[in-house]
Amino acid sequence: MPRVPKIIPISDLRQDVGGVIKRVSVSREPLIITQRGRAAAVMVSMKEYEQTQHELEILRLLARGERDIEAGVGFDLEAVLADADALLAEQQ
Length: 92
What we know:
The chain is α+β, with helices and mostly antiparallel strands. The chain is built from 4 helices and 3 strands, in the order E-H-H-E-E-H-H.
């Protein structure tokens, strides 16, 4: 079952910025901030942000690889696996 996102109005954020940041860092779950009843921003911990950026970079590389395959351009399998291992090692 999908989790219900945590949502707070910007006025609550203003009243307890430090506490909100601490809760986001500890929970590692995104927090939706509303303004005038509408979603205005999403706050995530730095660790989650970095993880998301890393995963996004891997997806970009995979998409580029698929385009290269379709265009008949490619790399040696051993070189690709070595690059993938290096990316995964950076994550740890």
